[in-house]
Amino acid sequence: MHTLKSFTRFKENILMDNLKQQTILALDLGTITGFAIKDQSGVIISGVASFHNKRFEGGGMVFLRFKQWLTELKNSTTNFDAIYFEEVRAHKGVDAAHKYGGFLAHLTAWCEHHQIPYQGIPVGTIKKHITGKGNASKEQVIDAVRQKGFSPVDHNEADSLALLDLVLNDQIKTSDFATMKITGV
């Protein structure tokens, strides 16, 4: 039997002092998830991953593939020092809200299991950072990311790159990072 014990893993000064040498993952969660990774050497890799339901597949399979994808990403790097995700408060429809909630639940549980600190950043904060407007359109975000030298394939990748840029420019306070530790009883 295992018990879960909560503890704060990182304090702001520890994470910010070492941010340049850390591996950071930024995510725009959804059926098409945008991702941007900055590795320890400073190289940035970005793209999109599709998690659409396949024919004759139960609804939970999408989330199992999402967790497997996260594990493959983690194993392809030295490990993630922190994960940031776009925190969405309003959705265009009920289905989008349910899917986002599923991805968020699986992401946070996966982070807790692997003891990786995570933090959600509101959409408006990301948009304001990258464009100067908190209510910028998808096209404006894509244009702003392109002006930074990136070539996102769509708004999902652009959002993850904008989020990563926000994190790397020391705009995020990380004092409320938390993770869980599993201890045997």
Characterise this structure.
There is one protein chain. This protein has 185 residues and is an alpha/beta fold. It has one domain: 2-Layer Sandwich (Nucleotidyltransferase, domain 5), CATH 3.30.420.10. The chain is built from six helices and seven strands; from the N terminus they run βαβββαβαβαααβ. The strands form two sheets. The chain has a five-stranded mixed sheet with strand order 4-3-2-5-6. Strands 1-7 form a two-stranded antiparallel ribbon. Helix 2 crosses helix 3 and helix 5 crosses helix 6. The longest helix is centred in the middle third of the chain and has 21 residues. The chain starts with a strand and ends with a strand. The N terminus and C terminus are likely disordered.
